[in-house]
Amino acid sequence: MTAPIISLKDIDVTFTPKGKTIHAVQDVSIDVQKGDIYGIVGYSGAGKSTLVRTVNLLQEPTSGSVTINGETFFSKTNDGAATKIKGKELKEKRRKIGMIFQHFNLLNERTVEENVLFALENNKEKEKIKKEKVAELLELVDLSDRAKQYPSQLSGGQKQRVAIARALANDPEILISDEATSALDPKTTRQILDLLKKLNKQYGLTVLLITHEMEAVKAIADKVAVMQNGRVLEKGSTLDIFTKPQAELTKEFIATATNQDQAIQAITDSETVKNLPAGQTFAELKYTGNSTNEPLITSLYEQFGVVANILYGNIEVLQGTEVGSLLVILSSEKDNLDDALAFLASQNVTVNILKGAQA
Ligand SMILES: Nc1ncnc2c1ncn2[C@@H]1O[C@H](COP(=O)(O)OP(=O)(O)OP(=O)(O)O)[C@@H](O)[C@H]1O
Ligand SMILES: [Mg+2]
Protein backbone atom coordinates (compact mmCIF):
# COMPACT_ATOMS: atom_id res chain seq x y z
CA MET A 1 0.00 0.00 0.00
CA THR A 2 1.28 3.46 -0.82
CA ALA A 3 1.95 6.00 1.89
CA PRO A 4 -1.21 7.70 3.12
CA ILE A 5 -1.88 11.28 2.01
CA ILE A 6 -3.06 12.09 5.53
CA SER A 7 -1.59 10.33 8.53
CA LEU A 8 -2.75 11.33 11.98
CA LYS A 9 -0.94 9.46 14.76
CA ASP A 10 -1.85 9.35 18.43
CA ILE A 11 -3.56 12.71 18.29
CA ASP A 12 -4.61 14.28 21.59
CA VAL A 13 -6.23 17.69 21.83
CA THR A 14 -6.90 19.02 25.30
CA PHE A 15 -8.58 22.34 26.07
CA THR A 16 -8.38 23.93 29.49
CA PRO A 17 -10.95 26.74 29.58
CA LYS A 18 -10.93 28.28 33.07
CA GLY A 19 -8.76 25.51 34.41
CA LYS A 20 -11.28 22.86 33.43
CA THR A 21 -9.81 20.08 31.28
CA ILE A 22 -11.65 18.96 28.12
CA HIS A 23 -10.22 16.02 26.21
CA ALA A 24 -11.68 16.98 22.83
CA VAL A 25 -9.61 14.38 20.95
CA GLN A 26 -7.97 11.38 22.59
CA ASP A 27 -5.48 8.98 21.12
CA VAL A 28 -6.78 9.12 17.55
CA SER A 29 -4.84 7.57 14.68
CA ILE A 30 -6.24 7.68 11.16
CA ASP A 31 -4.60 7.05 7.80
CA VAL A 32 -6.29 8.34 4.68
CA GLN A 33 -5.12 7.09 1.28
CA LYS A 34 -4.98 9.39 -1.72
CA GLY A 35 -8.31 9.37 -3.53
CA ASP A 36 -10.29 8.14 -0.54
CA ILE A 37 -13.52 9.65 0.61
CA TYR A 38 -13.08 9.15 4.33
CA GLY A 39 -16.11 9.69 6.54
CA ILE A 40 -15.83 10.77 10.16
CA VAL A 41 -19.14 10.34 11.89
CA GLY A 42 -20.25 11.19 15.43
CA TYR A 43 -22.74 13.21 17.41
CA SER A 44 -22.26 16.82 18.39
CA GLY A 45 -19.25 17.28 20.66
CA ALA A 46 -17.58 14.02 19.61
CA GLY A 47 -14.46 15.92 18.55
CA LYS A 48 -14.82 15.65 14.77
CA SER A 49 -14.13 19.31 13.94
CA THR A 50 -11.28 19.55 16.41
CA LEU A 51 -9.71 16.44 14.89
CA VAL A 52 -9.94 17.57 11.26
CA ARG A 53 -8.70 21.03 12.14
CA THR A 54 -5.42 19.38 13.14
CA VAL A 55 -4.95 18.29 9.50
CA ASN A 56 -4.10 21.84 8.41
CA LEU A 57 -3.01 22.89 11.90
CA LEU A 58 -5.89 25.29 12.41
CA GLN A 59 -5.81 23.33 15.64
CA GLU A 60 -2.45 22.28 17.04
CA PRO A 61 -2.55 18.88 18.69
CA THR A 62 -1.54 18.73 22.35
CA SER A 63 0.46 15.68 21.32
CA GLY A 64 0.74 13.34 18.36
CA SER A 65 1.82 13.80 14.78
CA VAL A 66 0.28 15.09 11.57
CA THR A 67 1.91 13.93 8.34
CA ILE A 68 0.60 15.12 4.98
CA ASN A 69 1.96 13.62 1.77
CA GLY A 70 4.86 12.15 3.72
CA GLU A 71 5.80 15.51 5.19
CA THR A 72 5.67 16.10 8.95
CA PHE A 73 3.44 19.12 9.57
CA PHE A 74 3.49 18.62 13.28
CA SER A 75 4.94 16.21 15.76
CA LYS A 76 5.03 16.42 19.50
CA THR A 77 5.75 13.64 21.92
CA ASN A 78 4.44 13.54 25.45
CA ASP A 79 7.82 14.69 26.80
CA GLY A 80 7.39 17.89 24.82
CA ALA A 81 9.88 17.51 21.93
CA ALA A 82 8.18 19.17 18.97
CA THR A 83 8.57 19.94 15.30
CA LYS A 84 6.10 22.00 13.31
CA ILE A 85 5.81 23.96 10.12
CA LYS A 86 4.85 27.59 10.53
CA GLY A 87 4.66 31.02 8.97
CA LYS A 88 4.74 31.31 5.21
CA GLU A 89 5.33 27.61 4.71
CA LEU A 90 2.25 26.71 6.77
CA LYS A 91 0.15 29.23 4.83
CA GLU A 92 1.22 27.72 1.54
CA LYS A 93 0.51 24.18 2.69
CA ARG A 94 -2.87 25.21 4.02
CA ARG A 95 -3.88 26.48 0.62
CA LYS A 96 -3.55 22.91 -0.66
CA ILE A 97 -6.18 21.76 1.79
CA GLY A 98 -9.63 23.12 0.93
CA MET A 99 -12.39 23.40 3.49
CA ILE A 100 -16.16 23.72 3.32
CA PHE A 101 -18.54 24.22 6.24
CA GLN A 102 -22.16 23.94 7.30
CA HIS A 103 -22.79 27.70 7.08
CA PHE A 104 -20.86 28.25 3.82
CA ASN A 105 -18.85 31.23 5.21
CA LEU A 106 -19.28 33.34 2.06
CA LEU A 107 -18.65 37.06 1.92
CA ASN A 108 -22.14 38.51 1.60
CA GLU A 109 -21.13 41.85 0.13
CA ARG A 110 -19.25 40.17 -2.72
CA THR A 111 -20.60 38.44 -5.80
CA VAL A 112 -20.25 34.73 -6.42
CA GLU A 113 -17.35 35.40 -8.77
CA GLU A 114 -15.63 37.70 -6.28
CA ASN A 115 -16.02 35.14 -3.51
CA VAL A 116 -14.12 32.58 -5.54
CA LEU A 117 -11.57 35.13 -6.77
CA PHE A 118 -10.87 36.07 -3.16
CA ALA A 119 -9.33 32.64 -2.58
CA LEU A 120 -6.75 33.52 -5.26
CA GLU A 121 -5.56 36.75 -3.63
CA ASN A 122 -2.14 35.25 -2.96
CA ASN A 123 -1.86 33.95 -6.47
CA LYS A 124 0.70 35.93 -8.48
CA GLU A 125 -0.92 35.25 -11.86
CA LYS A 126 -2.36 38.07 -13.95
CA GLU A 127 -5.93 39.12 -13.19
CA LYS A 128 -7.08 37.77 -16.54
CA ILE A 129 -5.72 34.30 -15.82
CA LYS A 130 -7.31 34.31 -12.39
CA LYS A 131 -10.67 35.33 -13.84
CA GLU A 132 -10.46 32.46 -16.29
CA LYS A 133 -9.75 30.11 -13.41
CA VAL A 134 -12.80 31.42 -11.54
CA ALA A 135 -14.96 30.94 -14.63
CA GLU A 136 -13.72 27.35 -14.92
CA LEU A 137 -14.48 26.64 -11.28
CA LEU A 138 -17.99 28.08 -11.56
CA GLU A 139 -18.53 25.94 -14.63
CA LEU A 140 -17.38 22.91 -12.66
CA VAL A 141 -19.96 23.50 -9.94
CA ASP A 142 -22.60 24.46 -12.50
CA LEU A 143 -23.00 28.07 -11.41
CA SER A 144 -21.71 29.99 -14.43
CA ASP A 145 -25.04 31.77 -14.78
CA ARG A 146 -24.85 33.06 -11.19
CA ALA A 147 -21.40 34.66 -11.35
CA LYS A 148 -22.68 38.21 -10.87
CA GLN A 149 -25.19 37.43 -8.14
CA TYR A 150 -24.76 37.87 -4.40
CA PRO A 151 -24.97 35.04 -1.84
CA SER A 152 -28.33 36.35 -0.58
CA GLN A 153 -29.77 35.60 -4.02
CA LEU A 154 -28.79 31.93 -3.86
CA SER A 155 -30.29 28.79 -2.35
CA GLY A 156 -28.38 26.84 0.31
CA GLY A 157 -27.21 24.28 -2.21
CA GLN A 158 -25.99 26.99 -4.57
CA LYS A 159 -24.15 28.74 -1.74
CA GLN A 160 -22.43 25.49 -0.87
CA ARG A 161 -21.41 25.08 -4.50
CA VAL A 162 -19.83 28.55 -4.42
CA ALA A 163 -17.99 27.46 -1.28
CA ILE A 164 -16.80 24.32 -3.08
CA ALA A 165 -15.56 26.37 -6.06
CA ARG A 166 -13.72 28.64 -3.65
CA ALA A 167 -12.23 25.66 -1.77
CA LEU A 168 -10.90 24.27 -5.06
CA ALA A 169 -9.38 27.56 -6.28
CA ASN A 170 -5.83 26.65 -5.26
CA ASP A 171 -6.02 23.13 -6.68
CA PRO A 172 -6.01 21.32 -3.33
CA GLU A 173 -5.33 17.61 -3.09
CA ILE A 174 -7.46 17.37 0.03
CA LEU A 175 -10.93 18.73 0.71
CA ILE A 176 -12.26 18.81 4.25
CA SER A 177 -16.03 18.93 4.35
CA ASP A 178 -17.17 19.75 7.89
CA GLU A 179 -20.94 19.16 8.06
CA ALA A 180 -21.25 20.76 4.63
CA THR A 181 -24.68 19.23 4.03
CA SER A 182 -26.11 19.60 7.55
CA ALA A 183 -28.09 22.73 6.72
CA LEU A 184 -29.48 21.34 3.46
CA ASP A 185 -32.60 19.36 2.61
CA PRO A 186 -32.19 15.71 1.57
CA LYS A 187 -32.37 16.35 -2.18
CA THR A 188 -29.85 19.20 -2.08
CA THR A 189 -27.66 17.13 0.25
CA ARG A 190 -27.61 14.42 -2.38
CA GLN A 191 -26.60 16.92 -5.09
CA ILE A 192 -23.72 18.23 -3.01
CA LEU A 193 -22.58 14.69 -2.14
CA ASP A 194 -22.75 13.74 -5.81
CA LEU A 195 -20.64 16.77 -6.66
CA LEU A 196 -18.02 15.74 -4.07
CA LYS A 197 -18.02 12.24 -5.54
CA LYS A 198 -17.56 13.66 -9.04
CA LEU A 199 -14.59 15.76 -7.92
CA ASN A 200 -13.16 12.71 -6.20
CA LYS A 201 -13.51 10.55 -9.31
CA GLN A 202 -12.42 13.12 -11.89
CA TYR A 203 -9.53 14.72 -10.05
CA GLY A 204 -8.58 12.11 -7.47
CA LEU A 205 -9.50 14.64 -4.80
CA THR A 206 -9.17 13.15 -1.32
CA VAL A 207 -12.19 14.07 0.79
CA LEU A 208 -12.56 14.08 4.56
CA LEU A 209 -16.29 13.97 5.10
CA ILE A 210 -17.28 15.06 8.59
CA THR A 211 -20.93 14.40 9.33
CA HIS A 212 -23.47 13.25 11.88
CA GLU A 213 -25.47 11.59 9.09
CA MET A 214 -24.53 8.01 8.32
CA GLU A 215 -26.67 8.44 5.19
CA ALA A 216 -23.98 10.76 3.75
CA VAL A 217 -21.27 8.23 4.55
CA LYS A 218 -23.33 5.49 2.96
CA ALA A 219 -23.82 7.57 -0.17
CA ILE A 220 -20.20 8.34 -1.02
CA ALA A 221 -17.57 7.32 1.55
CA ASP A 222 -15.12 4.47 0.98
CA LYS A 223 -14.06 4.36 4.61
CA VAL A 224 -15.45 5.60 7.87
CA ALA A 225 -14.39 6.24 11.45
CA VAL A 226 -16.99 6.52 14.21
CA MET A 227 -16.17 8.99 16.99
CA GLN A 228 -17.49 9.42 20.51
CA ASN A 229 -16.08 11.47 23.39
CA GLY A 230 -12.95 12.35 21.44
CA ARG A 231 -12.12 8.75 20.58
CA VAL A 232 -12.48 6.62 17.47
CA LEU A 233 -14.72 3.70 18.46
CA GLU A 234 -14.22 1.83 15.22
CA LYS A 235 -13.05 2.42 11.68
CA GLY A 236 -12.91 0.49 8.44
CA SER A 237 -14.33 0.21 4.95
CA THR A 238 -17.88 1.52 4.66
CA LEU A 239 -19.01 -1.93 3.58
CA ASP A 240 -17.50 -3.64 6.63
CA ILE A 241 -18.77 -1.05 9.05
CA PHE A 242 -22.29 -1.25 7.62
CA THR A 243 -22.44 -5.03 7.46
CA LYS A 244 -20.51 -5.86 10.65
CA PRO A 245 -20.77 -2.91 13.02
CA GLN A 246 -19.23 -3.62 16.43
CA ALA A 247 -19.96 -0.60 18.61
CA GLU A 248 -23.50 0.13 19.84
CA LEU A 249 -23.17 3.70 18.62
CA THR A 250 -22.29 2.52 15.12
CA LYS A 251 -25.36 0.29 15.09
CA GLU A 252 -27.46 3.26 16.13
CA PHE A 253 -26.07 5.44 13.34
CA ILE A 254 -26.66 2.71 10.78
CA ALA A 255 -30.21 2.14 11.95
CA THR A 256 -31.05 5.79 11.33
CA ALA A 257 -29.44 5.66 7.89
CA THR A 258 -31.29 2.61 6.68
CA ASN A 259 -34.66 2.88 8.48
CA GLN A 260 -34.14 -0.83 9.06
CA ASP A 261 -35.10 -0.65 12.72
CA GLN A 262 -38.39 1.03 11.89
CA ALA A 263 -39.21 -1.67 9.35
CA ILE A 264 -38.35 -4.42 11.82
CA GLN A 265 -40.43 -2.74 14.50
CA ALA A 266 -43.46 -2.28 12.26
CA ILE A 267 -43.34 -5.88 11.10
CA THR A 268 -42.66 -7.22 14.60
CA ASP A 269 -45.80 -5.37 15.73
CA SER A 270 -47.89 -6.70 12.86
CA GLU A 271 -50.68 -9.23 13.48
CA THR A 272 -48.89 -11.85 11.37
CA VAL A 273 -45.86 -11.83 13.63
CA LYS A 274 -47.77 -11.28 16.88
CA ASN A 275 -49.86 -14.37 16.20
CA LEU A 276 -46.95 -16.45 14.96
CA PRO A 277 -48.05 -20.09 15.12
CA ALA A 278 -45.92 -22.56 17.07
CA GLY A 279 -43.23 -24.07 14.86
CA GLN A 280 -42.76 -20.93 12.82
CA THR A 281 -39.80 -18.61 13.13
CA PHE A 282 -39.59 -14.89 12.43
CA ALA A 283 -36.05 -13.99 11.38
CA GLU A 284 -33.90 -11.41 9.67
CA LEU A 285 -31.52 -12.66 6.99
CA LYS A 286 -28.63 -10.43 6.03
CA TYR A 287 -26.21 -11.04 3.22
CA THR A 288 -23.49 -9.26 1.30
CA GLY A 289 -22.47 -9.71 -2.30
CA ASN A 290 -23.60 -12.41 -4.64
CA SER A 291 -25.90 -14.53 -2.52
CA THR A 292 -29.08 -13.07 -3.98
CA ASN A 293 -32.35 -13.83 -2.24
CA GLU A 294 -34.16 -15.88 -4.82
CA PRO A 295 -31.81 -18.90 -5.14
CA LEU A 296 -31.40 -18.79 -1.39
CA ILE A 297 -35.11 -19.01 -0.71
CA THR A 298 -35.47 -21.73 -3.35
CA SER A 299 -32.65 -23.78 -1.81
CA LEU A 300 -34.22 -23.53 1.62
CA TYR A 301 -37.31 -25.20 0.26
CA GLU A 302 -35.71 -27.67 -2.13
CA GLN A 303 -32.95 -28.86 0.19
CA PHE A 304 -34.57 -28.56 3.60
CA GLY A 305 -38.31 -28.30 3.05
CA VAL A 306 -38.23 -24.92 4.79
CA VAL A 307 -40.72 -22.39 3.45
CA ALA A 308 -39.65 -18.77 3.76
CA ASN A 309 -42.40 -16.21 3.58
CA ILE A 310 -40.81 -12.83 2.85
CA LEU A 311 -42.42 -9.94 4.76
CA TYR A 312 -39.88 -7.27 3.90
CA GLY A 313 -36.83 -7.00 1.70
CA ASN A 314 -34.25 -4.32 1.17
CA ILE A 315 -31.20 -4.26 -1.05
CA GLU A 316 -28.68 -1.48 -1.03
CA VAL A 317 -25.51 -1.04 -2.99
CA LEU A 318 -22.52 -0.02 -0.89
CA GLN A 319 -19.23 0.62 -2.68
CA GLY A 320 -20.56 -1.43 -5.57
CA THR A 321 -21.52 -4.41 -3.40
CA GLU A 322 -25.07 -5.56 -2.76
CA VAL A 323 -26.12 -5.60 0.85
CA GLY A 324 -29.42 -7.37 1.35
CA SER A 325 -31.77 -7.75 4.25
CA LEU A 326 -34.90 -9.90 4.38
CA LEU A 327 -37.49 -10.30 7.11
CA VAL A 328 -38.99 -13.76 6.77
CA ILE A 329 -41.23 -16.24 8.48
CA LEU A 330 -39.71 -19.72 8.25
CA SER A 331 -41.93 -22.75 8.63
CA SER A 332 -40.60 -26.27 8.90
CA GLU A 333 -39.97 -29.23 11.11
CA LYS A 334 -37.49 -28.25 13.84
CA ASP A 335 -34.65 -30.54 12.64
CA ASN A 336 -34.89 -29.22 9.12
CA LEU A 337 -34.70 -25.68 10.43
CA ASP A 338 -31.36 -26.31 12.17
CA ASP A 339 -29.94 -27.72 8.96
CA ALA A 340 -31.34 -24.82 6.98
CA LEU A 341 -29.79 -22.30 9.39
CA ALA A 342 -26.43 -24.06 9.11
CA PHE A 343 -26.77 -23.89 5.33
CA LEU A 344 -27.51 -20.16 5.45
CA ALA A 345 -24.46 -19.59 7.64
CA SER A 346 -22.34 -21.52 5.12
CA GLN A 347 -23.62 -19.13 2.44
CA ASN A 348 -22.45 -16.15 4.51
CA VAL A 349 -25.97 -15.18 5.41
CA THR A 350 -26.31 -13.79 8.92
CA VAL A 351 -29.49 -14.98 10.59
CA ASN A 352 -31.08 -13.07 13.47
CA ILE A 353 -33.93 -14.99 14.98
CA LEU A 354 -36.38 -12.38 16.19
CA LYS A 355 -39.22 -14.63 17.35
CA GLY A 356 -40.00 -18.32 17.49
CA ALA A 357 -37.53 -21.22 17.56
CA GLN A 358 -34.41 -20.40 19.58
CA ALA A 359 -35.41 -16.74 19.90
N1 LIG B 1 -11.56 26.16 21.41
C1 LIG B 1 -12.14 25.35 22.30
N2 LIG B 1 -12.05 25.61 23.62
C2 LIG B 1 -12.61 24.78 24.53
N3 LIG B 1 -13.32 23.67 24.22
C3 LIG B 1 -13.46 23.38 22.93
C4 LIG B 1 -12.89 24.20 21.89
N4 LIG B 1 -13.19 23.65 20.69
C5 LIG B 1 -13.92 22.54 20.96
N5 LIG B 1 -14.08 22.38 22.29
C6 LIG B 1 -14.78 21.25 22.97
O1 LIG B 1 -14.24 20.04 22.44
C7 LIG B 1 -15.26 19.07 22.28
C8 LIG B 1 -15.30 18.59 20.84
O2 LIG B 1 -15.79 19.65 20.03
P1 LIG B 1 -15.89 19.58 18.44
O3 LIG B 1 -16.35 20.90 17.97
O4 LIG B 1 -14.62 19.05 17.90
O5 LIG B 1 -17.03 18.48 18.25
P2 LIG B 1 -17.82 18.07 16.93
O6 LIG B 1 -17.82 16.59 16.89
O7 LIG B 1 -17.26 18.78 15.76
O8 LIG B 1 -19.28 18.59 17.25
P3 LIG B 1 -20.40 19.22 16.25
O9 LIG B 1 -21.05 18.04 15.59
O10 LIG B 1 -21.33 19.91 17.19
O11 LIG B 1 -19.71 20.15 15.31
C9 LIG B 1 -16.53 19.71 22.77
O12 LIG B 1 -16.73 19.35 24.10
C10 LIG B 1 -16.24 21.18 22.63
O13 LIG B 1 -17.01 21.92 23.55
MG1 LIG C 1 -18.05 20.15 14.44
From TrEMBL:
SMART domains: AAA, NIL. GO terms for biological process: amino acid transport. PROSITE patterns: ABC_TRANSPORTER_1 (PS00211), ABC_TRANSPORTER_2 (PS50893). Transmembrane segments: none annotated. Residues 8-254 form the ABC transporter domain. Gene3D superfamilies: 3.30.70.260, P-loop containing nucleotide triphosphate hydrolases. The keyword NADP does not apply. The keyword Cell membrane applies. GO terms for molecular function: ATP binding; ATP hydrolysis activity. InterPro entries: AAA+_ATPase (IPR003593), ABC_transporter-like_ATP-bd (IPR003439), ABC_transporter-like_CS (IPR017871), ACT-like_dom_sf (IPR045865), MetN_ABC (IPR041701), MetN_ABC_transporter-like (IPR050086), NIL_domain (IPR018449), P-loop_NTPase (IPR027417). Keywords: Amino-acid transport, ATP-binding, Cell membrane, Membrane, Nucleotide-binding, Translocase, Transport. This is D-methionine transport system ATP-binding protein.
